Write the structure tokens for this entry.
Amino acid sequence: MAEFDYDLFVIGGGSGGVRAARISATHGAKVAIAEEYRMGGTCVIRGCVPKKMLVYGSHFAEDLHEAYRFGWDIEGAKFDWPRLRDIVQTDVDRLEGLYAVNLGNVGVEIIEQRAVLTGPNEVQLADGTKVSAKYILVATGGWPAQAGCPGEEHALTSNEIFHLEKKPENIVIVGGGYIANEFAGIFHAFGSNVTIANRSDKILRPYDQEIVGRLLDISVAKGITYRLNAPLEKIEKNVDGTVTVHFKDGGPSQTADVIMVATGRVPNSGNLGLEALGVDLDKSGAITVGDDNKSSVDSIYAVGDVTNRVQLTPVAIREGHAFADSVFGGNPRTISYDNIPSAVFSSPPIASVGLTEDEARAKYGEHIKVYRSDFNPMKNVVSGRDERALYKMITQGPEEIVIGIHMIGPESSEILQGAAVAVVGKMPKKVLDDVVAIHPSMAEELVLFK
Ligand code: FAD
């Protein structure tokens, strides 16, 4: 008889857990995965995927408005939030089903229940069943931070925002990170009055602040209100169903249909039985793991947002894959956290890889060069839209090694993915200079920096 019920028990059917389960099974392991909500996790069910679909929906606002100047008469265009919401949710259902099928195809057992750890090799399911496994992988993700003030229960988070009954006329979005700025662009395009309230005067901290400044200028010109240095005092629910948010900045309170709090995500490590087993957590509640994703207990590993290294889907997926290859594939390997490209799907989007100008200066002093291209995309020239794109490239040393690329402008996330190769590959700028431009395009600016 086998010593354990499973070789691997994965807790959490999100980006990291699903990849780890699938690859481990492909390597021959007997695997079970427990998911307490919906298979696919945050990214598929209430994160990247439905968000990006809403971003696509939001683009029509400006395109329809500008269609006239491209020769099109569009009469009677109007926006129907419930229709978009429901179509997006139908696709989320489809993807959820695909995840289950793909796991089933490689023999992973799916357990639709909450699971907690009751021993270094033991897990208890919500129905009371206990199972054993040689290894346990915790991939329970993160959870939206709450407002942290009286009345926080009256605010929504990204968990609920995809299911709104109707489009808000007025929405206050609390936070200055990528989720706050993305939803500001989405709801503004749908016709809501949008205010971003942030407790400090800095938004999108990890991004190049000149690029962020351009987003601020464009967003303010569009009509998005930024209320900076405005920590929350309390949130109140009114009899008419609206919500009023009071700030500690001494300024006026603000009433809206929806207050959305997007102030970060905390590791989902509570009530899992981790502390009792001696699994080390850091101050934020994240499971502390080594490069090999192993926790302080030999049989317990963790990947993804619950480890709070880099909270992005492709990172969770890579960690899950590296875990499976290392533990079951006979190929011990780690992943690199350097130069991870990322995007903010704001309007217009930001994309970035490598060191920002401030970081590069702090690290290399005067031994850097900053190239800028500040241009009006051709489409905007026809449409009359006043939104200049800004691309920056940062090089270091006499060889001019490309150490950072930062962009704001249409399609920047699509354009940056390829350009990130230059940073990850530590290429000299000359290699990019040698590339013939694709003309006319916005991307050509990347090989024409002077
Ligand atoms: P998750 O995907 O969160 O999965 C964890 C799963 O574990 C969940 O399904 C949960 O229900 C389950 N679970 C928790 N506890 C238990 C338990 N005890 N028993 C059973 N199941 C349990 N990332 C990007 O790269 N690009 C983006 O554009 C992007 N946009 C985002 C937009 C929003 C609004 C949000 C909220 C996130 C976004 N992210 C984005 C981040 C991305 O979703 C996460 O980094 C990613 O999902 C992390 O994967 P994970 O496997 O660590 O956890």
Notes: The chain has a mean pLDDT of 97.
